[in-house]
Specification:
CATH superfamily of the largest domain: Response regulator
Helix content: 40-55%
Largest sheet: 5 strands, parallel
Structural class: alpha/beta
CATH architecture of the largest domain: 3-Layer(aba) Sandwich
Radius of gyration: 19 Å
Number of domains: 2
Strand order of the largest sheet: 2-1-3-4-5
CATH topology of the largest domain: Rossmann fold
CATH class of the largest domain: Alpha Beta
Order of helices and strands: EHEHEHEHEHEEEEHEHHEEH
């Protein structure tokens, strides 16, 4: 079974180097060198992974990532940038990127990240295949295989990381997670130290599923620790 990967990178030499390495790993590789045509190619195809440069002619990588995540929460996105600034890494995370490499990087490192992202994506698919069709807490219903939710019978869209967070909480009700634990499980160990990213994702998730985000029903703050999901008997009480 082929594993199609799309590279959107305007440095043709680098794109070609990445392509050769991935072809050697038996992946199917497609290339685009412009942000606008790259996004069009992504929307028209079916890809297992996207390698996305930040600085592009046409649309930049952040805008592409944002547009993709508005409709696609599953496809892993590996972002590339020539900048080493922390704000770029944070922005990539905020817009829904799954991993991040700063140029210059070794092709071996890129290949390792690609394999890790594809493995994680497959594990997530396998994990949801063994879960019931829906998980319901009060008026909130989660559909793992569709990666969608309804609240009071109204559908809501979540980003990839918002859904991953919600699934982790909902399948472990009552368990308290520190911000670092959530980073490790949902984003991966390489994002150690970016706990503010967890906070912003929790806030956005609460704004979508809570009637009153300042007094949440589902995602509770555990002071001095982090967050936990409500237990069923708390909803009934």
């Amino acid at each position: 079974m082929s594993t199609p990967i799309l590279i959107i990178e305007d440095d043709r030499d680098l794109s070609e180097l990445i392509k050769i390495q991935l072809l050697d790993q038996n992946y199917e590789v497609h290339q685009q060198f412009n942000g606008t045509t790259g996004l069009q190619s992504f929307n028209e195809g079916e890809y297992s992974l996207l390698i996305l440069d930040v600085m592009l002619p046409g649309l930049d990588g952040f805008e592409i990532c944002k547009k993709i995540r508005a409709n696609d929460s599953k496809t892993p996105i590996l972002m590339l940038t020539a900048k080493a600034e922390e704000i770029d890494k944070i922005m990539g995370l905020e817009f829904g990127a799954d991993d991040y490499l700063t140029k210059p990087f070794s092709i071996r490192e890129l290949t390792a990240r690609v394999k890790a992202l594809l493995r994680r994506s497959q594990v997530q698919n396998d994990d949801t295949s063994g879960i019931s069709d829906s998980i319901t807490f009060g008026e909130l219903s989660i559909f793992p295989q569709k990666r969608s939710i309804t609240l009071k019978n109204e559908s809501f869209d979540l980003t990839s990381k918002e859904f991953d967070l919600l699934m982790l909480f909902a399948t472990n009700p009552g368990k308290a997670y520190s911000r670092q634990e959530l980073l490790d499980v949902v984003w991966g160990y390489q994002y150690s130290g970016y706990s503010h990213t967890v906070n912003s994702h929790i806030n956005r998730l609460r704004s979508k599923i809570e009637d009153d985000p300042s007094n949440p029903t589902y995602i509770k703050t555990v002071w001095g620790v982090g967050y936990r999901f409500v237990e069923m008997d708390e909803l009934i009480a």
